[in-house]
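As a warm-up, study this chain.
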Amino acid sequence: MKQFAKRFLTNSQWQFVAVMKSAVSVFFLTTFRFLGRLILFLPEWLGQFGINILPAESRARILGDLPFTREAKFHPRVWCYISNDVEYRRSKKVLSSEMLNWINGFKEGDNFYDIGANIGMFSLFTAKYWHGKVEVIAFEPSFSTFTSLMRNVAINHLEDTISCFQIALGKSTRLGKFNYTSLKAGAALHTFDTFKNYRRDAFTPVFQQPMLCYALTDFIKEFDLPIPTHIKLDVDGTELEILHGAESILKNSKTESVMIEIVDLSEHDERTLSIIQFFNQLGYKCQERFLHSISLDFPRISDYFFVKI
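Now compare it with the structure written out below.
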């Protein structure tokens, strides 16, 4: 067709056609990219419909251009990779004053363990806040969320400060099944070796992944990692199992504090009382508790800050 058209067009006419073709291609590609970004924030069913009516090549281009980066609200110099609405919402979160005070209390040379790192909000903040002078070790078992975490480490050039591991932590070292509530990057409330969620309700996972689980004590010993000075634990229900697997680490004189996000299902939640008792026996006290909501209804989500006495 190209050779046929050239036989009937002058050089200037052919150059005009080539320019117009290029302009039209750029216009449609730009339009597709804009629509792709728009689709990201539409209801999921509507976004899927909008994508699926396009030709396969156009869909591939849009999906390739969908992810973008934005400056995080929790730190002005941190950029977050956004590929869905969950990651977008997480990038808009801010740290509580209690969390800021806790991280501000770290010292140069400390080691911060972020267990249940998700897309890396606390890891990224700590690394930037301390200008790389606090080493961060992050654990995130979900394959989709781990990818997002690694992208965030990469785009912020923090690979020398943050080390990330895609494993589960628990009471003992073993193989088990990681049960997903969603395959979206940034999703939470997954479980390990149980079909009961943080509310103790039965649920059906959307996907199960065979996964290596380590007791934290074993992981640190086997790979000669530094003892954590501070630990953040946000794991949606397996707190006690992980704490028991880290007992000898928590007894170590180098470990100073632990922050745990806990969901209380009642005024005297058995699991919460067991966690507090566990820390008391190891010589820690609950220095502060921060409620995520002013509502007094259950379940209540709180951050508990434990410090060694």
